[in-house]
């Protein structure tokens, strides 16, 4: 898409109390040691901007059925925790003598269990205040030496507080439960969610990290929360560390890659002979064609010279003078505002171009694409969709509309619609290598989420055909590398990244992704950091590299002492979406 940063779409559903593995037991499974990086976790494709296209993958596989892809991902979809723990009525053998004539006396634990069971009935009926009263009664009745039972009562009360969004009380009760039962997964996870709501990100990460270890990295819900919080912390760390950096123009490689994702963009086309300044023309009299002093034409000349820092000021001269090329200057200035990350300044210029009914339809469509991409980056998908649809309405033969809208549809998990848009782009531009590679990626995504192995193989074969047909398209190799990584074919993915580097040695983002692959594949932190540092050396304006460093640093600080594999692999898979 045309936005300068990928959109984050991590969503963690609020879970109600209970367990997907049955009721009654408060204890969590032991770990037996962390697996040797099953944390292919849910490694989906990174969101890579490198060549002007968002390398599209939102890692949340929310629709995966139980059983997943087996060994290919190491993930199982656990049921969400939607009921309180414990039976709704006393269990046989729970301390109540049964049978005709049995005595009715109940000891204190029995009375506590009865209060809990009553609370569970209230909970299931949505009567959370009454449930809290019953769980409180159970806590008061329970013998203090019955740690597991007591921890369950606290956890259940926390679940009821959660339904009332009383996050402080949730955290307090979960803390009590964990003190009584340190491996209590549900209490740890519920406390992690409470910390997230209370904006205690580090505490949230510590709890959800423990949950993932205890669950052997088999619960997608827990890993999504870990991923979400780790990325937020990584960005905060990067922002804090580099807060004094002035907004900078991206590298020339990034800018050229960005513009290469457009084929119907007037402002990125080479200057015509009649537009060039006198000294740039030959001696055949063409100099007579241009007599005005145009800031826009000067800006276009700077673009050809890769002197990008002067473009905004030259466009402003054209706009202030209300010159002949004011619409073009507004769009070019807005584009460079977006490239330096100043969406606030870009939006008025884009709005103005879109409102100019007499402006070239290609300019208006391009402005709609860029504003739509900006909205998606700002997590406003409805506004984004409206802009892309409007662009298609006013310029239905514009291949860029379908190309970039297809990427939006992938981010929105509307894969079938994405494939249709890529097909239309390819119909209009048969030689669009990027659209063909992204169509393959969309088909792979569709096959993966549908757990269709034959379609996955067909999509992988499609990638092979694309890179064979377009051997100079670095994006084709990069997208193929994403899918290969997801299939845990790490060696071949590494080869594809090497192909990207051969074709675009100055593309810093490729080095970052290759570094992340080393962390996930070999848990080689030194090599991974070496490649990310190389990215910064190539392009010291590469935010993706800085944010990735921040994520790794946060992960190392928060959980680095717990397991040497965890910071490498987890930081790798979490950084890829930033």
UniProtKB/TrEMBL annotation:
Assigned keywords, A-Z: Membrane, Mitochondrion, Mitochondrion outer membrane, Repeat, TPR repeat, Transmembrane, Transmembrane helix
InterPro entries documented for this protein: TPR-like_helical_dom_sf, TPR_rpt
PROSITE patterns attached to this UniProt entry: TPR (PS50005), TPR_REGION (PS50293)
Entry's Gene Ontology BP terms: protein import into mitochondrial matrix; protein insertion into mitochondrial inner membrane
SUPFAM superfamilies named among the record's database cross-references: TPR-like
Topology of the protein relative to the lipid bilayer: Single-pass membrane protein
Leader peptide range in chain numbering: none
First and last residues of every TPR repeat: 112-145, 365-398, 399-432, 474-507
Domain of life: Eukaryota
Pfam annotation, one family: TPR_1
Compartment(s): Mitochondrion outer membrane
GO CC annotations, alphabetized: mitochondrial outer membrane
Keyword S-adenosyl-L-methionine: no
Molecular function, one GO term: mitochondrion targeting sequence binding
Stretches the record annotates as Disordered: 65-105
Chief location: mitochondrion
Presence of keyword Transmembrane: yes
Family listed: Belongs to the Tom70 family.
Name of the protein this chain belongs to: Translocase of outer mitochondrial membrane 70
